[in-house]
UniProtKB/TrEMBL annotation, chain A:
<feature type="transmembrane region" description="Helical">
    <location>
        <begin position="334"/>
        <end position="356"/>
    </location>
</feature>
<feature type="transmembrane region" description="Helical">
    <location>
        <begin position="6"/>
        <end position="23"/>
    </location>
</feature>
<feature type="transmembrane region" description="Helical">
    <location>
        <begin position="391"/>
        <end position="411"/>
    </location>
</feature>
<dbReference type="InterPro" id="IPR001734">
    <property type="entry name" value="Na/solute_symporter"/>
</dbReference>
<dbReference type="Pfam" id="PF02518">
    <property type="entry name" value="HATPase_c"/>
</dbReference>
<dbReference type="InterPro" id="IPR003661">
    <property type="entry name" value="HisK_dim/P_dom"/>
</dbReference>
<feature type="transmembrane region" description="Helical">
    <location>
        <begin position="451"/>
        <end position="473"/>
    </location>
</feature>
<dbReference type="InterPro" id="IPR003594">
    <property type="entry name" value="HATPase_dom"/>
</dbReference>
<keyword id="KW-0597">Phosphoprotein</keyword>
UniProtKB/TrEMBL annotation, chain B:
<keyword id="KW-0812">Transmembrane</keyword>
<keyword id="KW-1133">Transmembrane helix</keyword>
<keyword id="KW-0472">Membrane</keyword>
<protein>
    <recommendedName>
        <fullName>DUF3311 domain-containing protein</fullName>
    </recommendedName>
</protein>
<feature type="transmembrane region" description="Helical">
    <location>
        <begin position="41"/>
        <end position="62"/>
    </location>
</feature>
Length: 924, 66
């Protein structure tokens, strides 16, 4: 494969990552975060899997069989402690506004700048080789893919010029990425949504790439796992990897345990893991899914390591570095695109690690090292700058570039000395030195600053002596006799057998001695130390944090109370000087006229001065300026950083406010709409009430008038009397009907109506409705034609309710048709049901009213008399009945057959077909 | 299936941690390093990955089972 397409694909892929990160940042700014998901969180944790996993696991498996697994079993075990340990760390970090693991440890031990700096330096020294490893992996896999260096020593392609090779190119692109998405602005909570989104995507890519290679190797090159393992078993040196001896034998068992411990500690203490797991966490409930999803990811990405290893060893023998089987096997199998995918997977693994690690380290170096040093040696410069944020960002960007340059330099100088996997474990052992102070600080109130500093320092020194220096010796920077005979030939000091402790693997050996020194110094110094009040306060805050308290869901913690250390010392003269520097002497004199310059300033005047300055410089800078004017050395690193935090806090709060304002506006709109609807309903109710009362009063009035006549005039003749009584009966019936309808409506609305739904014959049922209304039509002289064919399909309905609907439509037709008019009721089968129509020759329903007539309390306008002709409930009840039965109801123009002089209206409704077996079913 | 209380879940996971820490260690793993295959896969590999998958499944269940 030519280097052109490979380079093109790599650059295209990195560009896509840039785009994803940019998109995620934009989404975050718009308030629709993509990283607020437990799955994205778990995937971002998978930044744990670097090229060391992607390429190095196969290399380790080639010599140790399942010996590569402890690196993933350790984090699996650690995740099981998430509800106890990780949740507590997350809560403390949010409350303390932690920016890195160095900051976390420094905060726990009395905001100690010394400890913070120590941790930052140790982490950087420990992790730079690890970054070099990523660059090397990408460079070497590039060579393999392009055919540049398929050599057993895994060395670089020949003749690469310094600063013009792909390792440098990768480092440069990664630095750019880290600067753009990791150090673009100071964020209140050190959140980098774009970076996290890109990491999650990278994690998916590397997983898919490895699985694809694994599937290809097992089922493409061999015929499944069975034949593959059988083929491997035929080689005696491969069969050796099957049994436990390679990974679990007497020496190897020590490595197994040590690696498990180290990787669990590294999962917690690696700057990049702390960054994605703690600093970037937006919701601690995301841990609940990560507890199993992240280990599942680890299992999946390791599933095919052994098959790939065995296949590679069987195919290549010793011709190719096992570290590169993942790319070399697809190439050997002739599937170039898969090899390219594998390369991109490795590139993903490297890119994710490099970006997050360099961002985490740069934050640490800036906050824990650069700022305290600046404050110590150049306090004036820092305090004078109106807004220190650009300075801090410049430091961070510089740190990112420096870290990657260091990584590149290490890669060029020592890159080919050591197998990939050893470099990774050296880094793990370095950051594991933070674990005792970290975990101890969470549960042991008596742990102190001196203990922590002593522990980390002692552990790191032993680590450097037993692992780092020997690795230099192996890279020929130190004479080989350093390992074999000890420095200056002192055998007791041999780095791999310190004090004569032999029989252990170098890693287990280093872990044992460094842990002994680390924990020993930590415990001993803590026990003989007496911390001051501030340190005890922080200890109590960390140890006392409950893992079971109410979870945080957002990053907005109340800002810590500002300390008043320099305020007490300020005099009025100081304030005048400070204000004069920025606002001119006149304003300063004006502001503090008449006060004695020697007088203590007092809180009133301090606030006034701060307000004056804040108007020009902004709040945080105002305080810096004021503090620096009062007493230059009084502003310590912690306070400066807190001020920065507060500025960012204000930004965060104002963003939240904007969000809330938008929410409020939406709520207001919803309320306004609801209010309009309510007003409309209220008006309808009033209308209805007046209609109903009117309707009730009319029959009541005539009943009462006629009964009074009957009562007062006993001499009325019989015919007259009969006529009056008939009217009274008719009016009472009308009243009853009205009240029944109101009750019906109320019942339907409340869902309290009894339904008896069964298969019925629509023609029969409608005939009953016709019979009930025939008299009405005759009385009004309206011609009613009935068109109900025999053999209509049976429908599923409640017969009584269907009659009610039909009677309502028919009586409406009778009511609205003029004398001598015509009405026709007909029924026709349609697709899936029966359609019933009632057409009249009345005035019709105006098009705009067609929807409204089925609303409650609505009437079809004024009839000829100008008086409503009903309660306005009949059609509303009909609509609800039909809809409950599963049909539809509507009104349209009358058909031409009837429509001659008048418009006319055709009301129709449909009823659904009954199931084949007409079974009776009673429902409510 | 309803979620257990957070404390209960933490206790279950802590117990699972202890169990897994024991099972993932050389003395017990070595019991399966004696050769032989399971469906064509060496017994040791099948056992380690099966055990690992079981721990993950239990961790997922710990947060779901009442």
């Amino acid at each position: 494969m030519g280097w052109g397409p490979v380079l093109g694909a790599a650059l295209a892929y990195l560009t896509a990552l840039f785009a994803v990160a940019h998109w995620a940042d934009r989404r975050q700014a718009a308030g629709r975060s993509v990283i607020a998901s437990p799955t994205v969180y778990a995937l971002s944790l998978a930044v744990y899997c670097t090229t060391w996993t992607f390429y190095g696991s196969v290399g380790r498996a080639a010599t140790q069989g399942i010996g590569f697994l402890p690196v993933y079993l350790g984090p699996t075990l650690l995740m099981l402690l998430a509800p106890l340990l990780l949740r507590k760390i997350l809560r403390i970090a949010k409350e303390q506004r932690t920016t890195s693991i160095a900051d976390f440890l420094a905060s726990r031990y009395g905001r100690s700048p010394l400890l913070g700096g120590l941790v930052a330096v140790t982490a950087t020294v420990g992790v730079v080789p690890y970054i070099a490893l990523q660059l090397k992996a990408v460079a070497v896999s590039f060579d393999v893919l392009t055919g540049g260096g398929l050599s057993a020593d895994g060395g670089l392609g020949a003749g690469a010029l310094p600063f013009l090779d792909h390792g440098f190119l990768i480092a440069a692109v990664m630095a750019l990425f880290a600067i753009v998405f990791g150090a673009r602005q100071l964020d209140a909570a050190e959140h980098h949504p774009g970076m996290v989104a890109a990491i999650a995507l990278e994690s998916l890519v590397k997983l898919v790439a490895f699985l694809a290679v694994g599937v290809f190797v097992v089922w493409g090159l061999f015929d499944g796992p069975g034949p593959l393992f059988a083929a491997a078993a035929a080689h005696p040196d491969l069969a050796r990897l099957f049994d436990g001896e390679a990974a679990l034998g007497s020496t190897a068992a020590g490595v197994w345990v040590a690696t498990t411990l180290l990787s669990a500690a590294a999962m917690l203490c690696l700057p990049r893991q702390f960054q994605v797991m703690v600093i970037e966490a937006v919701d601690e409930r995301h841990l609940d899914r990560a507890v199993w999803l992240f280990p599942l990811y680890l299992l999946l990405i390791n599933l095919f390591v052994l098959p790939v290893t065995l296949a590679g060893l069987a195919t290549f023998g010793g011709r190719t570095d096992p570290d590169l089987f993942v790319v070399a096997l697809p190439l050997e199998g002739g599937v170039a695109w898969l090899a390219l995918l594998a390369f991109l997977g490795g590139l993903s693994a490297a890119a994710g690690m490099i970006v997050v690690e360099s961002v985490a380290l740069s934050t640490m170096l800036c906050n824990e090292l650069a700022v305290p040093l600046l404050l110590r040696f150049r306090p004036a410069a820092l305090a004078r700058s109106a807004d220190p944020a650009p300075l801090l960002l410049a430091i961070r960007r510089g740190a990112i570039v420096a870290i990657l340059l260091l990584g590149y330099a290490y890669f060029r100088l020592a890159g080919s000395a050591y197998a990939l996997v050893s470099i990774g474990l050296i880094s793990f052992a370095a950051v594991a030195q933070f674990a005792p102070a970290l975990v101890g600080g969470l549960y042991w109130r008596g742990a102190t600053r001196r203990g922590a500093i002593g522990g980390v320092a002692a552990g790191t020194l032993v680590w450097a002596y037993t692992l780092l220096l020997p690795s230099f010796a192996r890279s020929d920077w130190l004479p080989a006799s350093f390992i074999a005979d000890g420095p200056w030939g002192v055998t007791v000091l041999r780095p791999y057998a310190l004090l004569g402790l032999e029989g252990l693997d170098p890693l287990a050996h280093a872990l044992f001695w460094s842990a002994l020194a680390n924990i020993g110094a930590y415990v001993a110094l803590s026990l003989f130390d007496s911390p001051d009040g501030a340190e005890r306060g922080q200890a109590a805050a960390f140890v006392g944090m409950s893992a079971a308290a109410a979870p945080f869901t957002d990053t907005a913690a109340p800002p810590p109370a500002a300390s008043a250390d320099w305020r007490g010392a300020a005099s009025v003269g100081d304030l005048v000087r400070a204000v004069a520097r920025f606002l001119g002497p006149q304003r300063a004199e004006q502001a503090f006229a008449g006060a004695d310059p020697q007088e203590p300033a007092g809180p009133e005047r301090l606030r006034a001065a701060e307000r004056l300055l804040a108007g020009v410089l902004g709040g945080a800078s105002a305080r810096v300026a004021l503090a620096s004017a009062v007493s230059a050395e009084a502003v310590d690193a912690a306070e400066l950083l807190r001020m920065l935090d507060e500025t960012s806090d204000v930004i965060a709060h104002s963003r939240q406010l904007e969000q809330k304002t938008a929410d409020l506006e939406r709520a207001t709109d919803a309320l306004r709409a609801a209010n309009e609807r309510l007003t409309e309903l209220d008006r309808l109710k009033d209308d209805f009430l007046s209609t109903v009362t009117h309707e009730l009063r009319t029959p009541l009035t005539s009943i009462r008038a006629l009964s009074e006549i009957l009562h007062d005039d006993p001499g009325l003749d019989t015919a007259q009397r009969q006529e009056f009584l008939a009217v009274i009966i008719k009016e009472s019936e009308r009243l009853t009907r009205l009240i029944n309808q109101v009750l019906d409506m109320a019942k339907i609305e409340a869902g309290a109506l009894d339904w008896r739904i069964e298969a019925i014959d629509p023609a029969d049922t409608l005939a009953q409705a016709v019979a009930a209304t025939e008299a009405l039509f005759r009385e009004r002289g309206i011609d009613l034609s009935v068109d109900l064919p025999r053999h209509l399909p049976r429908v599923r309905a409640d017969a009584d309710r269907v009659i009610q609907v039909a009677v309502n439509l028919l009586s409406n037709a009778a009511k609205f048709s003029p004398r001598g008019g015509r009405t026709r009721i007909s029924a026709r089968p349609i697709d899936g049901g029966v359609r019933v129509t009632v057409a009249d020759s009345g005035p019709g329903v105006a098009r705009k009213d067609r929807k409204l007539v089925f609303d409650r309390f609505r009437q079809s306008g004024d009839t000829l008399t100008g008086k409503p002709a009903g309660t306005g409930l009949g059609l509303a009840i009909a609509k609800r009945i039909v809809e409950h039965l599963g049909g539809r109801i509507g009104v349209e123009d009358a058909p031409a057959a009837i429509e001659e002089e008048t418009a006319g209206a055709t009301f129709w409704f449909t009823l659904p077909l009954a199931a084949d077996s007409a079974e009776t079913e009673a429902t409510r | 299936m309803t979620a257990p209380s957070p404390g209960r879940r933490g206790e279950r996971l802590a117990a699972l941690f202890l169990l897994a820490a024991v099972l993932f260690n050389p003395p017990l793993l070595r019991l399966f390093g004696t050769g032989g295959t399971l469906l064509g896969v060496p017994a040791l590999y099948a056992w380690v990955f099966g055990l690992w998958a079981a721990v993950i499944a239990l961790a997922a269940l710990a947060g779901r089972m009442k």
